[in-house]
Design goal:
Layout (H helix, E strand, L loop, with lengths): L2 E5 L3 E9 L3 E10 L2 E7 L11 H8 L7 H18 L6 E3 L4 E15 L2 E11 L2 H8 L5
Parallel strand pairs: 4-7
Antiparallel strand pairs: 1-6, 2-3, 2-5, 3-4, 6-7
Helix pairs in contact: 1-2
């Protein structure tokens, strides 16, 4: 069984290109204690290429035997954190909405980045069906 994290912290979401040219996902960024959360919000009918953020990071970084966890974690953290600095015009911000993250991987970084000790990566769902509908609608914009 996958590890789960729950919270109700602010979540920033936006449409994100998971694989060029047309595989899109809803990328979500939140914080949980000293870690960041970077996750996809499941949307029925989306491409399987959008399912694994870890594989997405692998496609964007050169192969390295040095420290895959640190490299991929930093790339994903940067992708998520950047939405908090410059929120996407067509994005969505949820405040106080209960969410659950099914953790696929966690990466504790060698040194903190963007105010986080690391990143939890996985699939984020909201308790509220209405919030899930709003997140899914991001792919229709």
């Amino acid at each position: 069984m996958a590890r789960r994290i729950t919270g109700s912290d602010r979540v920033i979401m936006a449409r994100f290109t998971a694989q060029w040219p047309d595989a899109r996902c809803v990328l979500a960024y939140a914080r949980h204690e000293s870690m960041a959360v970077v996750a996809t919000v499941p949307v029925p009918g989306t491409s399987p290429a959008a399912a694994s953020l870890w594989e997405l990071a692998a496609r964007h970084l050169p192969p390295s035997t040095a420290n895959e966890t640190d490299s991929y974690g930093r790339w994903l953290l940067g992708a998520g954190w950047s939405m908090s600095v410059m929120p996407p015009v067509d994005g969505l911000v949820a405040h106080g909405e209960p969410w659950t993250l099914e953790v696929a991987r966690s990466a504790v970084l060698k040194e903190p980045a963007y105010g986080s000790d690391g990143v939890h990566v996985g699939r984020l769902t909201f308790e509220s069906p209405r919030m899930m509908e709003r997140a899914e609608a991001l792919l229709l914009r």
